[in-house]
What does this fold into?
Amino acid sequence: MKVLYGLAIALIVLAAAAVAYAVSPRALEAVERPDPQSFDKAAVAHGERLALIGNCAECHTAERGGAYAGGRPIPTPLGTIYSTNITPDPETGIGTWSQEAFRRAMYEGLDREGQHLYPAFPYHHFTKVMPDDVDALYAYLMTREPVRNEPPENELRFPFNLRPLLAGWKLLYLDNERFAGLSDADEKVNRGAYLVQGLGHCGGCHTPRNALQAEKQDEFLRGEVTEGWYAPAIAGDVPAAVKWNEAQLADYLAGRWLEEHGVALGAMAPVAHNLSRVPDEDVAAISAYIVSLMEGDKLEADAEITGAVGEPPDSGDIGAVIYAGACAVCHEASPSPSATGLPLAYSTSLRIPTPLNLVRIVEEGVKPPEGQPGRYMPGFAGALTEDQMVALATYLRGQFTGLEPWADVDDVVARRMRNESGTKAGTAEAE
Amino acid sequence: MITLNVNGSTFDTETAPETPLLYVLRNEMELNGAKFGCGLGQCGACTVLADGRPIFSCLTPIAMLAGREITTLEGLGSIDSPGPVQKAFMDEQAAQCGYCIPGMIMRAHALLLQNSAPDETTIREALEPSLCRCGTHMRILRAVHRASEGFQQQTSAAGEASQ
It folds into this structure.
């Protein structure tokens, strides 16, 4: 078995090397860093809006690092990738990149020197972006403050550390075609589809991936674990208690709190913070497209759904006791508007196929973006033991959704809480 | 009945299992160091330690704490013999109204148990869940820096003294 496996790997490596040789990309000439004044102001402003929609700063900025200066670790199942510096610093950033080199990176996943880039940089989405928008993004990035910062080397397992292999990946999964438009949709939904499938790269987190980390096109936006959070299905039968409508989703995407759905959390929180700063019509378009993909019978938004427990808990169920003593004070009849939690019958985190998000929210709490007003929930890391977390998660799922218990709850809790108390990697990521 | 282990002594209570620890500490045990601030885990005045980690006692049902080691402000020292963090807070005159200070001290103590020489950023992050409305933050930070100097020797000395 091991021999076969080794042989298969060797064959793949050889085949990919042959392909890589055959299509060996060339380096593009280094240019003098363009004068920031030379860019059209309107293009720079347009690029700023696009950069927010693309959520570029989130991956390309390290914790406490300079904006767009890279170095943020991106955990993947194949190892850790560090984001690149996309400030116009000539030596460590993209200061010597021409507009042509930038376009090639966005459409073909190559850096200026012709080296393959990993699809953690979602060029398989950016191929859909129109050239004018790519150029506006270039104008925006080239007018940022240059920051000298050399990101660490990637830490990927063999053979994934061999960049020429990416030529094979691209042959299989990269379709260098611009967005063609939906045939049966109005202008707003079309605009939304363009933003979602292209720059917004929502599928980067929300679409399940295969073993080679390519998004499964036939499961578009059907939910996946990415960067330590489960990004729920946002197309098809979505795990919400009540129906989403366009206005609600637009509010949610702009970081606002909704009585029936709560607020963007985890890896979605920075996305929502960015979208709160783009024009409403873009967010409305994204919302219209996403809502058009949702199916399945759900309760209407005004349905009577409280799920309040009200009674003293059964003292034999520690999960019920914890809910009554620790959670209900905010999640049922809170005394304070700032501490009004989502009635848990509305919770998406209780309806997804894994307790991962619930465990993280309970451990880490909820904080609004730095310096912004918003909902707050204290983190309970250190307060709950693993057994208590399992009991709480199991109780909440049963009490508020009536769905099947989570089969993997012990595993998820053990993995999450041991990691949390060991390295704090998880919490750092969420803050 | 639930048996709690607080500052090294056991305490039996018949109170309902979902009752937050803070009420048992203050009303039954008369340990008034931990304060009731918001009752929602937002201000940190009620902070105590469970197995060395800070928790909001206003939101922690006693059923969760059976068999675990609880430490309150009173467990760190007394007026005659303050613990190193308490002494540092007094030396730096870090209290104004003082309501948040027990929580601040407990969080600082938990941090120093993990890391006896934290840098400024680490201290700020560790104390972030505790709010102070008087604005003595700079003194509090100085107190934690002071406490970290020689924290280890003093805790081991205090540990021996209390036994």
